[in-house]
Design brief:
Elements: E1 20-23, E2 42-43, E3 47-50, H1 59-84, H2 91-116, E4 123-126, E5 131-137, E6 149-155, E7 159-166, E8 173-181, E9 188-197, H3 202-215, H4 243-250
Antiparallel strand pairs: 1-7, 2-3, 3-4, 4-5, 5-6, 7-8, 8-9
């Protein structure tokens, strides 16, 4: 739990987010910085979609790892049969088959990540419904288990913005979270990630300003800072929304 002195800004929400840095203005209030997005997928008079790219994953590395595991699996299997040739018993064949299964399971996991895991887990804000929708994808630890897509939705009026700092070795930097509170209170029910910036929180303040201004039915520019995707090829079907939530999140009531 961080310690604060009376002279320092203190978090408004309870409990505060770990490694708290700053609270954003309430989303119905005038914003303090110019609105700006780093990436933008879709914006119209009904809804706004902002991507959340999984940039911490090296997708080329995932594919290379899957290919390597396949090659090793084939080698282990062939070696087991070759060593067993001319000997009695089936011990080496069993060991070879077991090793092949393990390496092919690891290869299948990597291939499924590369082909099926969404590179983008976006959020949508529907200003006609005044709701926010968060696309989440849960990756299981085994390749043959179901990897489900879930959509969470919250009333925008109950969402507050917080900036924190992550010290994780592979995911360090500033992070903007949407913190959902009980109506009319500062008691946090749940949180979800909106955006990350490695070295500066200024862009996160501009992103929060953009989302708030859009949901206030004010005009915002459709020109993001970045125009291309930060990753390589991706099967677009991987980030497909369930039909009912696709319809609800993109239409007026």
């Amino acid at each position: 739990m961080p310690l604060f002195t009376m002279d320092e800004p203190q978090p408004r929400l309870h409990p505060p987010i770990k490694n708290w840095r700053e609270d954003m203005p309430e989303n119905h209030e005038p914003q303090l910085v110019p609105p700006q997005l780093r990436w933008l997928t879709t914006m119209n008079d009904t809804y706004l979609e902002v991507p959340r790219y999984s940039a911490e994953v090296s997708w080329g590395g995932v594919l290379a790892w899957a290919i390597l595991m396949s090659i090793i699996g084939i080698g282990v299997g062939v070696s087991g049969f070759a060593i067993q040739h001319g000997h009695t018993g089936h011990g080496m064949i069993i060991i070879g088959l077991g090793g092949t299964f393990v390496f092919f399971a690891m290869a299948s996991f990597g291939l499924r990540m590369y082909l099926a895991q969404p590179r983008d887990q976006p959020i949508r804000l529907n200003r006609k419904r005044q709701k926010i929708y968060i696309f989440d994808y849960k990756r299981a630890q085994l390749p043959w288990m179901k990897w489900p897509t879930t959509i969470r939705s919250y009333d925008w009026g109950n969402v507050h913005g917080e900036i924190c700092y992550s010290y994780a070795r592979l995911d360090s930097g500033f992070q903007l979270f949407g913190s959902v509170c009980e109506p009319g209170t500062n008691k946090v029910v749940t949180r979800f990630l909106i955006a990350k910036e490695r070295s500066s929180q200024e862009m996160l303040c501009q992103i929060w300003s953009y989302l708030s201004v859009y949901m206030q039915h004010d005009s915002v520019t459709a020109d993001p800072v970045e125009t291309g995707r930060p990753d390589d090829w991706c099967p677009r079907k991987a980030d497909r929304w369930p039909e009912d939530m696709e319809r609800e999140s993109t239409t007026a009531p």
